[in-house]
Specification:
There is one protein chain. By secondary structure, the protein is mainly beta. The chain has an eight-stranded mixed beta sheet with strand order 7-14-10-11-12-13-9-8. It has a five-stranded parallel beta sheet with strand order 1-2-5-16-19. β8 and β9 form a beta hairpin. 39% of the residues are buried.
Length: 237
Amino acid sequence: FVPDESEFGCGPLLDPGKTYHVCVTGDDAADGLSWARAWRTLGRGIRDLKAGDTLLIGDGEYFEPSTLELVGTKGGRLGAPDRPIRIMAAPRARVIVTGARLYRDLRKSPGCTYTYETLFEGDDVDVAWESDTQIQLQYAGSRERVEDLPATFWTDPDAKKLFVRFSDGRGPDVHGIRVRGPSIGLDVRSSYVHVKGLWFMNYSSAVMVRPDRSRFGDHVTIEDCAFFATDMAGLHI
């Protein structure tokens, strides 16, 4: 089966706009128009994309604490036939996008044998992963339950602490903990969009494609992307 991209996907880019760049050593205060002046975050990179523009992303892991929203509007951020918006990994680059904050500065919780703790500035959360194994940890509900059960965690917003018992006998010299932030990684509510070569992890739904109230959300191509360590769906259409 060979799909007709004029009906099912974004189609080729025949009328290019600008090419922007994001890399792990970039600066969001730059203009993004070259690798030497690249932006640091995908959130900054996606913000001003218009029909025909391409966002190239360099090798590395990108922590994006807010949902990346690509929402169609009459003023821009809406692709068109022959002018799709492209969000792509650079050639030979492995690009990992995560919504989970990594905590590695953990110490043994007083009076506990298996539980480790660290400072936690945030609201109560119910989803976390062991950083190296990507095992999803279960929410325990109290520090005592964390001590009793392997592969569990608990956050105490009042004490501003995060507690974890890892899945095996090893500690923070091996493991860290990733705590989920936004539930959606990339939210596509724009027409004629091409997303290629990105790996998404530690979201509820890594990529969501849906129409908004203006019914934008058609002719979207998702190519060579990977979705893992999500607690609901990788690609949610």
